[in-house]
Amino acid sequence: MFISGSILVPYPLVQERYFNLFHLNPPTWSLFWEYIANIFYALFIFRLRKYALLVLVIFAAILLCYESYQSGYIGVGWSGDTFWGGGVRVLYSFTAGMLLYRFNWIIRNSLGFTILSILLLASF
Q1: Which residues is 20 bridged to in the sheet?
Q2: Residues paired with residue 107 on neighbouring β-strands, in sequence order
Q3: 49 pLDDT band (50/70/90 cuts)?
Q4: β-bridge partners, 50
Q5: DSSP designation for 7
Q6: CA-based nearest residue to 79, from 31, 10, 7
Q7: Phi, psi at residue 20, to the nearest 5°?
Q8: Would you say 15 and 39 are in contact if contact means Cβ atoms under 8 Å apart?
Q9: Which residue from 14, 34, 46, 121 puts its CA 20 to 30 A from 40's CA?
Q10: pLDDT digit string (tens) for 64-76?
Q11: CA 69 to CA 115: how far, in whole Å?
């Protein structure tokens, strides 16, 4: 269990841990899927043009809606029975972020770090 937790490989289901696949640090399921997304990016996704990426994002959004409908909620990906839902969550967020960057939909502002930090603290 220690070795699989250290190298971020899902461990077989353990009922006593609520079927969590990453026993040492449960939130690492997200990091595992980010690694998988980066591998797919390096091999395939970086070649996609903007509009092909848009189609992929729409497809991922449909998959995410289907997954949330099937599960009843969107908090999936950390357990054995919702493992593949984590891939759907990361697929949408990863490709949507790429789409925002490629279409240059970036909000530019002239506020500095200090003012943005104060605004962030005020919101908290």
Answers
A1: 79
A2: none
A3: very high
A4: none
A5: T
A6: 10
A7: -75, 135
A8: no
A9: 14
A10: 999 999 988 888 8
A11: 40
Whether 1 has a pLDDT exceeding 90, the answer reads: no
- State the pLDDT at residue 17: 62
Tokens of 6: 């250290």
Encode burial over 11-35: b for 16+ CB neighbours within 10 A, e otherwise.
Answer: beeeeeeeebbbbeeeebbbebbee
* DSSP helix/strand/coil, 27: coil
pLDDT band at 106 (very low <50, low <70, confident <90, very high): confident
**Could you give the count of Cα atoms lying within 13 Å of 74 in the half-sphere of its Cβ?**
9
Query: Which band of pLDDT confidence, cut at 50, 70 and 90, is reported for residue 59?
Result: very high
75: its two tokens: 């908090």
